[in-house]
Write the C-alpha cells for this entry.
Amino acid sequence: MRKILVRGAFALLMLCLIAPAALAQVDGPGDRLTLSGVVKNPQGKGVKEVEIEVLVNGRHVKPLGADEEIVTGSKGSFVEEFQLPAGTLPDARIEIKASKPSWQTLTAAVDAVAQTGTDEKGNRLFQATQNLPLKRAVVPAFWIATLVLMATYVLIAAEVMHRTLAALLGAAVILFITYTAGTFDKSYFILSFEDAIGAIDMNVIFLLMGMMIIVGVLKKTGLFQWLAYKSYALARGNIFILSFILQVVTAVTSAFLDNVTTMLLLIPVTIEIAVTLKVHPLTLLVPEVFASNVGGTATLIGDPPNILIGSYAKLTFAQFVVNLALICGVCLVISCLWYLWWYKKGYLEAEVKDVDRTIGYLREEYRITDKKLTVMGLGILGFVIFLFVVHGVLHMEPSIAALIGAMLLLTISRVDIVEMLEHEVEWPTLVFFIALFMVIAGAEETGLIQMIAEWVLNVSQGNLTIAIIMILWVSAIASAFIDNIPFTATMLPIVLFLNESMGVTNNVLWWSLALGACLGGNGTMIGASANVVTVGLAEKAGYHISFLGYMRACWWPMLLTVAICMAYLLIAY
C-alpha cells in the first residue's frame, strides 16, 4: 500500500512538472485557438517587438510550430495558433502577458472566445482577439538615453569637440550600455544594434552626398565666382544695389543647392569685392548668410533641417515650394531692406572709383573657366531639379534624383570620382547625421521623445493654433542657440506624434518646424552651419566678429521674419 501511495505521489508530481508542456503538445483531436491582437501605445500606435506570453488557466502555452515567445511585428500586431486539450475551451481562463524594455509589463484577460467550426482532423476551432494598451515605464535606460542626448547637445553647442565626434560618442555609449548592462538587466536596454541601423535615414545621407558631388563638379567651372562678378557689374558700383543683388543671388542659389556650399563659394569673392570698395566685408557677408538661410528654407534641398523633415514626413519638393516659397520670398525682401538700413553707415563710406576698371578686373579674375563643363553641369542640375519636382508623382525618393544626377555628371564630365569622394563629399557631416539618428532613436525607444510630445500636447490642450505657435517659436529660439540639425532631428517624432494625436492633415505643423528651425538658426553665429562657416572663413581672412556682435546684427531680423511666418501660418492654415 505504501509503494502504491509513493508511486501515486511521484506520478502526480511529474504531472505537475510537465503540465505546462502538455498543453502545448496534444495528440489527437483537441481545441485549436487562433489568437490575435495589437499592442498599442496610449496614442493608439502599434508597438513593435513586444514579447507576448499566453497563459491558459495560469499555465504558459507555446504556439504551434514555434519554440520561442511570440513577438509583435512592425505595427504591433500578432497572430498565433495554439493546440489545447479537448474540452479546454471555451470556458478556460486565457491571459496575455506583454513585456518590452522601457514599457510597463501588462497582463490582460481575453474577453471572449468564439467557436468557428471544426477542421478535417476533428479539432474544434476557436478564435479570439485582444488588443493591449501598453504604457511607458521610467527605467534606468530612460535616464541614460536622456543624459546622453543632453550631453551630446552640450558638447556640440559648447564646441568642446567636433560635432561628429560628439554624436558618435553618444551613439557608441548607448550601444555599449545596451550590450553590457542591458544584457543582464533589461531595464538598462536602450537600443538594439538592428534598430540603431534601422534608424539611419539613408535617403538623407544619399541626398546630401549626391548634391555635394554635383556642386563639387560645378565648382570647377568658376560659375559661382562669375555670378558674384555679374552682381557687381549689374550694380555698377552702387553698394546698396550690390548688397541687395548679392542677397538675392545667395538666397536663390541656396534654394537649389545648399546654403553651406553656397556660402563657401561666395565668401572669397565677396571679401575681395568688399576690400575693393573699402567697406568691411562683414557688412556684405552677414546679410548674405542671413539670406542663404532664408532662401534655403524655401525648398526641400536648401537647408539640412528641410531634408530631414521631408524625408521623415514623406513631403515632396513641390509641397515645400508651394507652401514655403512665397513666405520665404517675403522674408527675403524684409531682411534685405533691414540690412540696407542696418549697414547704411558702413555702405555710405564705400569708395567707388573707376567702376569700369574694377569690372574689367573682376571679369578677368572670375570668369567661367570651363564652358563645356558648365553647360553639362547646369543641364544635369536642371534634370535633377525636374526630378525633385515630380518625385512625388513617381513615388521616388529625392536621394535617387540626386544620385542619378551626380553619377551622370561624373560619367559624362570624366571628373575623377576618387577626387570627388576625397575632397568634395563632406564625410564628417554624413557620419554626423548617421550617429545623430542613433542618439535620437535611443531617446525615442526609451520614451523621452514621447514624454516631450505629450507635454507639448497637454500645454497646447489640443488646440492647433497654440501648437503652431509653440512649435514655431520653440524651434526658432532653440535653433538660435543650438545647431538646428540635431534639434530638428529630435523634433521629428514629436511633431509626428502631435499630427496623429490632433488629427492634423494639412502639414501645417511640419511647416512650423521648418520655418522655426531654418529661420531661427539666423539668430546667432552657432544657430546654423552656414553661419559657422561664414564666421570661420571671415576670421581666417582677418575679419573677426564676436558672438554678441553677430547677435546684434541678426537677432532682431530673425524675430521679425519668424513673426511674419507666424502670421502667415495662422492666416493660411
